[in-house]
Amino acid sequence: MTVLEALKEIEKREGLQIPLVMTGASFSAAPGILKFISEQDMSYVRYLGKVPFEDMVALYQGCDFLISASLYESSSLPILEAAAAGAPIIASRIPSHEELGQRLQINSFGARSVPDLVRVLLSLWDDKSKASAQAAHNRENIAFYSWNSVARQYLSLFDQLWLPEICLEVRVRTGIQTALTRIQL
Which of 6, 29, 139, 150 lies most in the core, judged by the most C-beta atoms within 10 Å? Predict the structure, then answer.
């Protein structure tokens, strides 16, 4: 509800209706969310439901920014997908998003803070060059999270743990390459 409340606050304060497209399967909170949208006359908010991945790529590429307002998650695939597609990112300040923010440029806000999100939304909405620069940075840095990169990071860790007395040779296929390393048992 934080995102919807922030958008409504912006509309009241600035007279600005920032369009929002929501996706995803309908869960227990959906009726309350849809009721809020209707009661607040937020015609600039659309709920598409579950969207095929191919269509999600087009949504990411066409959006002004992605908002991930999670209270908890272990990792955020939507943030990674949006970064790869070139969308600037706004995300709640939770540990998994902060971890992604070590490599990616993420505009953070307090997870339940409407004023904080209003500030971040208006800042990014009003500064298209900042949004564009962040999107370019994220496209350049998203490769760090690829399967090949993660496999190389694990191989490097395994090499650091190697003890000659007890080891096992393991062949790990990483895309085009095949790497051979030793893992301590």
Answer: 6
